[in-house]
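hey can u check if this looks right to u? its 293 residues, i copy pasted from the old doc so theres a chance i mangled smth
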Amino acid sequence: MNSIWKKTAGLSIAGGLTIGLAACGGGSEESEGAEEEGGEVNLTYVAWESEIASSNVIKLMLEEAGQDVTLTQVDQSPMWSSVANGDADGFVAAWLPTDMDAEYERYGDEMVDLGPNLEGNKTGLAVPEYMDIDSIEDITTDTAEHITGIDAGAGIMLATEEALDVYDLDIELLASTDAAMTSELGGKINNEEPVIVTAWQPHWKFNTYDLKFLEDPEGVFEADGEIRTMVREGLAEDNPEAYQILDNFYWTPEDMNQVMLDVAQNDMEPEEASQKWIDENRDTVDEWLETEE
């Protein structure tokens, strides 16, 4: 796994989040000046490779429209609470209906749901094709040493814990990070060793390695989900241009995978890969940037 994914814009905060918003300042001369220049936008995101990709693409788009954009990396729960509290303007990383359902249930009514920016995503457990196993219910203590996960508290980790109970599995789930998980996956595959990881699609690993999702007959994981854009209440009035661009943003799993692959395989910085995708999809981006005067 290329360590470049760890080089993300913004400030990494694991706990609470407080961000000053010039766009929320009302009638001050400072905020009026910011609005004339295009406004300021503070976006949060989780350090998943998929959301690093989408957050950098939307950042560059907003900056192209004249917005001053700050990206702040946080954990999953603070990503939601910061927008619900009005400390941040929004995010494009709401994996629903199940992966972040607890946060949506808690904070959804306190923010504005702009709907999906990507459809057809999936979560579950994945293994290399060379492993002789096809279903979660067939996992035994001989299948692999453990299941390698991501951040403790992430929706897919909670779903995996549920799967361990539902399928009565005697195997340990280890929390790590997205980067550590893909690093272990690559090392195991290079040696054709058994490995089970928490997985989601879109993700570059499915384009890089010959992987398969394990069947989930009990329907614990998200089989056909979407990623939604969530923004704070009042953003439409404070910064209508940013609000509309965020609302317009909609792409495909193939689009997202292209950005991730350029980072993982072509050694690009996330912002560089995002700009490349924007340049290669100019007509689509121009449509997203169309706002009412």
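Confidence is low (pLDDT under 50) at residues 1-36.
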